[in-house]
From TrEMBL:
Source domain of life: Bacteria
One matching Pfam family: DUF676
Cross-referenced InterPro entries: AB_hydrolase_fold, DUF676_lipase-like
Name used for this protein in its record: DUF676 domain-containing protein
Domain DUF676: start-end pairs: 104-206
């Protein structure tokens, strides 16, 4: 039974009141969800979490705090206020915010899968985009996370359904492989033409939900990962530091200051290459790249 026209609200029947309450509750829930979605979309890049992923360590461990202290300082100077999360993947890693208990025989695809779940559980499923900064093999792990989700997300329970990664920056990452003679799985994965490298190359510039902006950084003084390899993947932004500046493979992720660095750069997928003698240090370049894309 419904209330007659003109019947006061307080005189409505119990079923009508229940229906009205349910409708109000549904409206409130919908409004709250819309508000949360809008708030997520307005998150400034400087408030986003940034994952810092170190490179391979053949002795099976690294000190995350020592490895990334300059990067953290550079990000803070550029105004980043969000969590700066050092992600380790060896049992021997020390002072890392988050660590997966792997070793040098843990494949890079598996490390990418573990990173993908870490990002999804902590951030993506809550609508929060993140940034990824990887040095050397750390950049391959970041790429593997996005490629694996692109290939398998929503089709395999082994991978998250999606990731929200706004920016990826790689420092001296061997996208075209590197000479490696050790009989270890990670070494085998990084050799040019390996099954892993072919798998990765089949999905360059992999995108997360909301889009992902890629920046690749290399250096001519890097004798381990030559520029052809460091810049050897599809990306909108590519930067290579010129010779004579001592930007080497072990220290590219330590240089944070100065405004007279010489490098060539492209913001057009490797085309329209320009050169400057008044460029920023590698870590400042990384910081600026990590705040380039709003989601």
């Amino acid at each position: 039974m419904t209330a007659a026209p003109g019947t006061p609200a307080h005189a409505q029947t119990a079923p009508a009141q229940a229906a009205s309450a349910k409708a109000a509750l549904a409206k409130a829930v919908s409004a709250k969800a819309a508000s949360a979605k809008a708030a997520s979309a307005k998150v400034s890049p400087i408030n986003r979490p940034v994952y810092l992923i170190h490179g391979v360590q053949w002795d099976g461990g690294t000190d995350c705090e020592a490895s990334w202290q300059n990067a953290k300082a550079a990000l803070r100077r550029e105004g980043f206020r969000g969590p700066l999360i050092t992600w380790g993947y060896y049992r021997g890693d020390r002072r890392c915010a988050v660590t997966y208990q792997g070793d040098v025989d843990t494949g890079i695809v598996e490390l990418g899968r573990r990173l993908a779940w870490e990002v999804y559980h902590r951030h993506s499923r809550h609508g929060r985009p993140v940034g990824l900064l990887g040095h050397s093999m750390g950049g391959l792990i970041a790429a593997a996370a996005l490629v694996g989700v692109h290939k398998n997300g929503g089709r395999s329970r082994a991978w998250p359904p999606y990731l929200r990664v706004a920016d990826v920056v790689t420092l001296s990452t061997p996208f075209q492989g590197v000479a490696c003679a050790a009989e270890l799985l990670q070494c085998h994965d990084m050799r040019g033409g390996s099954p892993f490298m072919r798998w990765l190359a089949s999905c360059q510039n992999a995108q997360g939900r909301g889009g992902t902006d890629w920046t690749l950084v290399g250096a001519y003084d890097d004798k381990h990962v030559v520029p052809r390899s460091a810049l050897g993947s599809k990306a909108r932004h590519k930067i290579v530091y010129l010779r004579g500046q001592r930007v080497t493979h072990p220290n590219v992720h330590y240089f944070a200051k100065g405004a007279r660095w010489k490098f060539r750069y492209s913001h057009h997928w490797g085309k329209q290459v320009r050169q400057t003698a008044k460029g920023a240090a590698p870590l400042r370049v990384a910081a600026l790249a990590l705040r380039s894309k709003a989601q």
